[in-house]
Design goal:
Shape: globular
Radius of gyration: 21 Å
Helix content: 25-40%
Number of strands: 22
Length: 490
C-alpha cells in the first residue's frame, strides 16, 4: 500500500471507502470522510445499514477531545391494547452455524442514522452536508452491482428479503433474490438522501417522512409512533478510556455493552504475558461473556455503571475507520440489524429489526422502557500511543464484535502485525460454552473442556473488522476479507 497524503479510509464496501477517500481529497477531515462513507454505505451495503438504522461514532486525535456520539436505536412506545403485531422468526445460516432473528413491524425501533449524520457533521465536520451526501446520491441513482460479499448476505437473508411485497420489489424483482453481478437500485433512497442534504434530519423525525413511517407501521401492528421519533436526539458521551500495555484504548461507553465487555477482556489480558496465549484469549472472552447477566444488562443505563463494573471485576453491521493527514481519527459503526423486511414506500427506508434481535434482548423482547437506548454490542474503538492515534478499528458481527476487536488489538499491539495481517489473521470466538475457530487456529492449545466448532474457511460469522493504522507517520489500512472490506488511501 503506497503512502497516503490526505488520509486512509477502511470500510465494508469499496464504494463506501471510495466515497470517504474522495471527500478527503476534496479537503474534508476524518469526520467528513467518515460521514460520506457512512452515507455511501446506506446505498452500497443496504442489508447491513441505512437511514432506518442506528450506530455510534468515536472521534479523537490532533488535539480533539475524545468523544462518542451515540445515535443508536431506542426502544419505542408500546400500544398495550392488544393490537400489536407479533415478532416474526426467521433462521439465518452461516454454513457452519445458524442464528435466529425476529423481524416484521414489531421489530422496528426508533432509528438514529439521520440524526447521527447531521449531528456529526455539525459538531466536527468542515464541508457542507450536501457535498458529503453527493457520492451516495450518485450511487443511488446509478445503482450498485452486488459484489460477492453482499450477494452472500442476500442469499442467507433470502426469507427476509421476500417476506414483504415492498422488500421483494427491491431484492427479488423477478421472484428470486438478486445475485452477484446484478444491479440493486433504490431511487426512493436517493431522494431521501437529497432531503437529508437539503433539510437535515427534521423530515425524518418530525416531518412527512416520519409521518409516512408511523402510518405504515401503525397499520401493520408496529408500535413506533410519532412521539418516539420527535423525541429522538443523538447524544454525546465520554468514551471508555483504559490502559492496555503502554497504550490508551478508547471505546464505546454504557449504555452500549460491547465497549465495556471489550475493556474488561483487555484488562484481564493486560495482567498476563504479551502476546497472550490462545488459552488466555479464550479465557478472557469467557469471563466477559459470563458477566452479561440480567444485573449487567439492567445496570448499563445507570450513572456510574462502567466505573462500578470495572472496579468490581477489574450480525449484521458495518464499520468505517478513518485517519486523516493531521492525525484526526473517526471510528463509526452502524447497523440495521438484519433489517425488518419493512420498506416504507416513498421514503427509501428499510427499517431496523433491533427490537427483534436476541443478542440485544438477552432477557426477553420488549422489556426495555420507551426511550431507552438498546444495549448494543457495537464498539468503535481507537488505540492511542504517546497521545497520538495509532489504530482505528471497529467491527460487524453481533456478539462476535468484541472477540474480533480483542484479537485485532492483540495482533497490532502485542504481536506487532500490520493492519492487514492483524485483520486477516484467523479468529476464535467463545460463546455458550463453545469455542468457534477458523482454520489456522490450533485448538490443541486449549485446555480440555469446551466443545469446539471448526469452520472450513474464514467466515463473516467472525465479524468484519475495518482498521486504519498510523505507524511512524505512515498511514495504512485493512478491510476484512470476511465481509468484502477494503482500505483506500487518499
Amino acid at each position: 500500500m503506497s503512502e497516503a497524503s490526505k488520509g486512509v479510509v477502511a470500510a465494508g464496501h469499496p464504494a463506501s471507502a471510495r466515497a470517504g477517500a474522495r471527500v478527503l481529497r476534496e479537503g474534508g477531515n476524518a469526520v467528513d470522510a467518515a460521514v460520506a462513507a457512512m452515507l455511501a454505505s446506506f446505498v452500497a451495503e443496504p442489508l447491513l445499514t441505512g437511514l432506518g438504522a442506528g450506530g455510534y461514532m468515536l472521534v479523537a486525535g490532533a488535539g480533539m477531545t475524545p468523544s462518542l456520539l451515540d445515535f443508536f436505536v431506542e426502544a419505542p412506545s408500546r400500544r398495550g391494547d392488544g393490537t400489536e403485531a407479533e415478532l416474526e422468526r426467521i433462521e439465518v445460516s452461516f454454513g457452519d452455524a445458524a442464528q435466529a432473528f425476529h423481524v416484521g413491524p414489531a421489530s422496528c425501533g426508533v432509528y438514529g442514522a439521520p440524526a447521527g449524520v447531521c449531528e456529526a457533521s455539525r459538531r466536527w465536520g468542515t464541508l457542507p452536508l450536501a457535498q458529503l451526501t453527493a457520492p451516495a446520491i450518485e450511487l443511488a441513482e446509478a445503482g450498485v452491482v452486488l459484489n460477492s460479499s453482499q450477494a452472500y448476505v442476500a442469499e442467507i437473508l433470502d426469507g427476509l428479503l421476500r417476506s414483504t411485497q415492498e422488500c421483494a420489489a427491491l431484492w427479488a424483482p423477478d421472484g428470486r433474490v438478486l445475485r452477484e453481478g446484478e444491479l440493486i437500485r433504490n431511487p426512493d433512497l436517493g431522494e431521501a438522501l437529497r432531503r437529508l442534504a437539503s433539510d437535515g434530519a427534521e423530515p425524518f423525525y418530525r416531518g412527512d417522512i416520519a409521518r409516512a413511517v408511523c402510518d405504515w407501521l401503525g397499520a401493520r401492528g408496529g408500535s413506533l409512533c410519532g412521539e418516539d421519533l420527535a423525541g429522538y436526539r443523538a447524544i454525546e458521551r465520554e468514551p471508555v478510556s483504559m490502559r492496555y500495555r503502554d497504550r490508551q484504548i478508547l471505546t464505546n461507553p454504557p449504555p452500549s455493552a460491547g465497549g465495556t465487555l471489550l475493556a474488561y477482556a483487555l484488562a484481564l489480558l493486560d495482567r498476563g504475558p504479551a502476546p497472550p496465549p490462545l488459552q488466555g484469549i479464550v479465557g478472557a472472552m469467557a469471563a466477559a461473556q459470563s458477566e452479561r447477566t440480567p444485573e449487567f444488562v439492567e445496570g448499563l443505563d445507570q450513572d456510574g455503571f462502567l466505573e462500578r463494573f470495572l472496579t468490581a471485576r477489574l450480525g449484521s453491521t458495518t464499520h468505517i475507520s478513518v485517519i486523516d493527514a493531521a492525525g484526526r481519527a473517526c471510528s463509526v459503526t452502524t447497523t440495521n440489524g438484519e433489517g425488518s423486511g419493512v420498506v416504507v414506500p416513498g421514503t427509501g427506508l428499510h427499517l431496523n429489526n433491533v427490537m427483534g434481535e436476541e443478542d440485544l434482548n438477552p432477557l426477553g423482547f420488549h422489556l426495555h422502557p420507551a426511550g431507552r437506548r438498546m444495549p448494543s454490542m457495537m464498539a468503535p474503538s481507537i488505540v492511542m500511543r504517546d497521545g497520538e492515534v495509532e489504530l482505528v478499528l471497529g467491527s460487524a458481527g453481533s456478539n462476535r464484535i468484541r472477540s474480533a476487536l480483542l484479537q485485532t488489538i492483540v495482533g497490532v499491539v502485542d504481536r506487532g502485525l500490520s493492519a492487514e495481517a492483524a485483520v486477516a489473521a484467523p479468529r476464535v470466538h467463545f460463546e455458550d460454552g463453545i469455542v468457534f475457530a477458523e482454520p489456522g487456529i490450533d485448538v490443541g492449545e486449549l485446555d480440555a473442556g469446551p466443545r469446539v466448532v471448526r469452520f472450513g474457511a474464514l467466515n463473516l460469522f467472525f465479524g468484519g473488522v475495518q482498521a486504519a493504522l498510523r505507524h511512524r507517520d505512515v498511514l495504512s489500512g485493512a478491510g476484512d476479507p470476511r465481509r468484502g472490506g477494503v482500505a483506500v488511501l487518499a
